[in-house]
Design goal:
The chain is of the alpha/beta class and 272 residues long. The protein has a domain at 3-143 and 172-201 and 244-259: Rossmann fold (3-Layer(aba) Sandwich). The protein contains 11 helices and 12 strands. The protein has helices spanning 11-19, 32-38, 59-80, 114-126, 147-157, 176-189, 205-216, 226-233, 238-241, 249-253, 263-271, and strands at residues 3-6, 24-26, 44-47, 87-93, 102-103, 132-138, 140-142, 170-171, 173-175, 193-197, 203-204, 245-246. The strands form 4 sheets. A 6-stranded parallel beta sheet has the order 2-1-3-4-6-10, sandwiched between helices. The chain has a two-stranded parallel sheet with strand order 5-12.
Amino acid sequence: MKIALNGASGFVGTALQKTFKDSVILDRHDDESQLLAKLEGVDVVINLAGAPIIKRWSEAYKRTLVNSRINTTHKLITAINQSNVSHLVSTSAIGIYPNNISCDESCEAFQDDFLAKLTQAWEREALRCNKETTLLRFGVVLGKEGGALAQMLTPFKLGLGGTIADGSMMLSWIHIKDLVRIYEFIIAQKLTGVYNATAPHPVSNRLFTKTLGGALKRPTVLPVPKFVLRLMYSEGASVLTDSKEVYPKSLQEAGFDFNYPEIQTALDDLLT
C-alpha cells in the first residue's frame, strides 16, 4: 500500500514518516499538476496541513491558520478527486466541540468561536473528497519532539509550572505513539467517518499539572492566570484555557486498544 503525506514536516508528520517509511511527500506549494503526478499509484493520502495553532492570533495569523488549512486542503482534494487514490485520512481537531460538555463522536453541538468555525470549514473541504474519507479529530498530542508538552517542559523543569487558573478545565490528550497506531489501524481496517484521536481518560488541568510535576520531580505551585495567557496569545489563548472533555468512543467500538490510556503511564513513558 502506497501512502502520501501532506504536511509531513510538522510534529505529527515527522512521527508518521518513521512508520510509513516509503511515503510520498506532498508539498503545500505543489500545483495541481505536481500533486497529480505525485499521487500516481498512491492508495491513501494523510492530510496534516495546517500552521501551528498555539501562537498569538493576530488578524494576520488567523488568515494564515485559515489559508494553511482550507486553501491547502481544497487544492489537495481537487487533485485527489482526479486520481486513483482510494482513501483520504484528513486531520481535524476537538476544538470543534463545546466547552464543559462530555462529547464523543455522536455530539452534534459545536462551539461558537473562531477555532470551531475554522475546524468545521476544514472538515467541509475534506468532505468534498469523492473517495473513502476519514476525519480524525486530534486532542492535545503529547510527545517529546514537539507539540504542547515540549513547550511546557522548560518552565516545569525550572519549577515554574502550575495550573491554569483554578485547574478545573478538562484536557483531552493523546500520546504520539498511540496517534501513529490509530493511523495504522484506520488504514488497515479501512475505517471511514469521524473519529476522536484522544485517550479514553481525559484529565483536569490540575491533575495533568500535578502528574507532570511529579514525573519531573518539580513543584507546581505557581498558577497561571488566564489573563496572562490572553496577553501572550490573544484569542489563541483559548487553545490552552478551553475545557474539552472528549472520548474516543468510535475507535474503541471499532476495536482499537490504547497503549497509553492513562496520563500517568503516558508521561512516564515520555519523560524517562
